[in-house]
Write a structure and sequence with these properties.
heterodimer; A: mainly alpha; 3 helices; B: alpha+beta; Alpha-Beta Plaits; 5 domains; 6-stranded antiparallel sheet; elongated; cell membrane (chain B)
Chain lengths: 69, 807
Amino acid sequence: MGILWVLVPLALALSGIAVVAYVWAWRNRQFEDMETPAYRVLFEDGEATRRGPRANGEVDKAKGHEARG
Amino acid sequence: MPAVQPITQPNATDTGTCRHCGERLVSQQVDFCCPGCALVHDLIHQRGWHEYYRLRALADGKPNQNKNNDLPSFAYLGTEVYYDKHCGRRDGLYQGTWYLEGLHCAACVWLVEKLVQNCRGVVNSELYFGSGKLVLFFEAGADLEELARLIAAAGYQVGLQPRVGGEESRDLLRLGISGALAGNIMLMSLPFYTGLEQGGFALLFAWVAFTLTLPLLFYGAAPFFKRAWLAVRLLQLNLDIPIVIGLMSAFVLSTVSLLQGHVHGLYFDSMGMLVFFLLTGRYVQNMGVQRALRETQRLLAAMPQLVSCREGDTWVEKPVEVLKRGDQLRFRAGDLVPVDGILDSDEGLFNLHVVSGEADPVTIKRGGRVLAGSVNLASVVEIILESGVDQSQFARFQEKSQQFNRKKQQQPIAEAAARWFLPAALSAALLGFVLWYPSSPAKAFSVALTVLIVVCPCALALAEPTARAWGLSRAAQAGLWIKRPEVFEQVPRVKQVVFDKTGVITEGLPTLLETHWFHPNQHWLKAAICELEQAGHHPLANMFLSAWQAERGPVPTFKSVTAVKAIPGVGVRGEIDGREVVVCSLAALPQFAERESCLATASDLAAGLAPGRSATAAVVNGRLAALFTLVDALGEEVPEAMKQLEKRGLVRTILSGDRQDVVDQLTGMLALDQGLGERKPEQKLAYIEGCRNQGCLMVGDGLNDMGALAAADVGVTHALGTGAALEFADVVLRRRDLTGIDSLFDLADRVKAATRRGLALSLGYNTVAVALSLAGLIGPLIAAVLMPLSSLSVIAVSAWTLRQRSR
């Protein structure tokens, strides 16, 4: 039963990781738009130029220029 | 890029369909059914974007069409005011949000994103299909005007958010984290349910559960604490107070027993479930409200237009925000006047429908006041700005209406249950303690705790939010957007329904009722009238065009259309192929026509006109050519809707700015209870204020209804209403279909029934459970198991009630 001293913290750590992942996803605005990505699947390869939601509102400048060129 | 597939881009010569939308072509049309389609096809074709047609076929999408050839001006996007007022700054880039109307499939998303990517100066973008929101990140000087023009030309409406701001909601984050915490607390408590009572592991599990409860209580349950504190400060009772008392007592008692080294009598898991269920209920309810708000926001989105303002000898286009008192402004026919001003031209013809409710155009002479919201109908007019934009009558009225809306929100939701529930619960716990104390103090403590846990008003608090959440989702399905869930509570108390006339009961636009032809060539005359009306921007142009568009066929070509002039208050005249054609009111007929017999016919017609109808005449070369009777037609479903409301025993009143005789006639025709005409916006507001809190539902759509909508217990408008009406209404009907009001009543009744059943269930549960715990028959453990079960049963009952009756 001594193994519980390891398993309980391990279980907590695992759920901690899940919570961190959830917070990351929320911050990344993964839950904001549940519809558009479904349509984007239909685009030709190489046409899917949208960069997807950006981390913390950062703007990916380089890619933006690429897409415009 | 693959070769263009034949099915996706029909070839016009083989199939005779439009190359853009695939509609069958009428003879003489080549390749395209309308100029709109040709424009969109060109736009796509020139750039080699055939991918659009492939995606459209794949997604089975409808074609986007630009039926409206008059694109609004997007010059506003290039002004400093746009950058200042509508854009945020982030990392050296500007961020602006547009709302697009008309996205229907993957191809639309693709096309808009393509257009955005090809715009100079736009670095990044996000397009949200569901809400039609397009977020742009751009450098200063980006060519937004061109981008908006292209998107609009492709058949989508582009608008700006009416107001900037709106905090990002953290509810989902809180819900997810609380869920994770509650689940883990439950897991850590499981051993106690299965009989683990002592030893090191028991303490390990108990302390872990305690640690997990801390963030749950102080982060997850924070909204309840905040609202309970607010209620305490305002000396009110709401359902958050018993929740907080329940949570705090469970927490304190569990912590005390944990510190004493006991592992029985811990209620961390029950607290976790309570918080999680409550947050879920509120989240679902908010989602419905958010959806309604989003829809109305999209309807409110519009592109601000620039106003031509005199600067020295030239006219400069300026945003409304920078105009000053005394500025001289110029408006073309069809322009909306956005400010209050004094007319500086000899005469002007304005449509005041949204300002005063008057359906007929009004002539204003030099020096007369033109109010914000008027539409210039005739020729170019000049107006001198009378006051700053913020002080226009409209702005003042808007401010007043906002006060009403705020008051409405502060109205305490009738939480009658909370008012007696809280004292009852506390005294029951106290009673248990007192009853058991003489025999055993420890038992007394346990009984009091059990009572506190079983009465913890989880189910009670959930009954109303869940019923409302279900109601909101049903409402959305039925084409009603409800912006305030409290509406469900107020609607069943409504005794009087007040209607605006123009635009609500009637279409707000004249339609052709009868025609008398005196001219031999009807076809030529119809085409000529259409031509003349269009060229002269006459108020009746749309009516004639829509009535005859079908038979007019391919646009006829006249050799010459000259000397077209709109005569305010009279009509429009011009020379078509050398013949003088005039469309004028009956009163002005003698000026243009000669033959006496015709004039007699005309005056007979005028004499026999029923109220609410008017007549107009067409004259060719001085001879009466045709007479038309016009009527502002009733909405199709109006009589049906009125009957439904009558069945409900409601008082139905018309409150209109239009003439009393017109109102009387309508009141008689629809057998309504009351018809009040010639009411100015302030009078409408005063009338509604008089019936406030006596169950008054107002249906309106114009600027003139804004105050009344805000003041009424329930304000209803439809999606075609003006921005002001949409902003202040509580309920928005997706279509102008007044039978929606009956659905609203029906829905509110069902929500009420569901709430009642939920409350009855949870009160019944509480009574039985309290009795059992007072008798000492159940312990805290069973109480903790029963509590989530009762919440679930409340959710099930309200879902069942709303579902069952809707079939």
